[in-house]
Amino acid sequence: MTSVRVVYLVVSLVGLSCMAQAMRSPAQALQDLNATRFLSIAQRLNDQRILGGNTDGMLYTILVPTDDAFNKLSPEEQNNLDTVPGLLEDTIGAHIIPGQLFSWDFDTGRVIVTDNGHFIRVYQPHSKEETFLNDAKVLRWDEEATGVVFILLDTVLDAPEGTIYEVLKGPDFGLNIFADMVDQAQQNFTLHRTAGPYTVFVPSQTAWDNLPVTIRDELARNTGFLRTVIQYHIHRGSIHVKSLDRNGTLSTIYGNHVINVSVTSDIKLNRAAGLEEVDIDCDNGVIHIIDHVLFPSNVGTLIG
């Protein structure tokens, strides 16, 4: 019996040794996955979380955009990554998750915190054959290398610039009118201090300017009406544009009132509002900019 145990132990040790020898280096794995741009960035930053050289024994899950994903970035986006101080590091950090996670750990609806404090939301569209992490589609799961697990993505993830409220108040997207209305309607706590996630359809400056003067005056003087309109633009849950691919309805935080989604050659909300800019990721949700202001069906009662 003892000799059998010894043989079993020897075989096990040999097996483990072979597995260790067979495990790819992170650099080799990234080359195999057609992710040489990501590898080049990791080497330039000397990011040992990706390269597998951590001396503290910490393991990581790395969300890896393919070379094609980087090629989809606009020239301005690529230039910003190279020139804006700290942006490249923050963007790469948004792709790194502490600990080793595998495909079975990514349940739809789960929110995962990255190593630099950003949020990754897992969701599956109507067919459960695809999984998205924020707005990026998973191409391959569970690619192991020394010290890391790689998950291959078709899109470079954004490093969110703050909460929904912080992005609304910031200068980048020109959403100050909506931000001021959020303050007046006392919805700033919801969009800044709560985890959500929320999807906010934000009318552009032109959309507000195109409203009749009587409606604008009513919004300015009637706080209750303003709060209703703001709440009607907020959906509880994180929805990226890839999920707005069929006719249906979206719930809002304004009671039982819904937004109708119709899809023909493009996407329309309530058969009027089109999408101008989509998938602006925030720490507690996502913003889509639309070209019309949305109103619930009881608007006549509210301002009558």
From TrEMBL:
SMART domains: FAS1. Pfam families: Fasciclin. Keywords: Signal. PROSITE patterns: FAS1 (PS50213), PROKAR_LIPOPROTEIN (PS51257). It comes from the Eukaryota. The keyword Signal applies. PANTHER family: FI19380P1, PERIOSTIN-RELATED. This is FAS1 domain-containing protein.
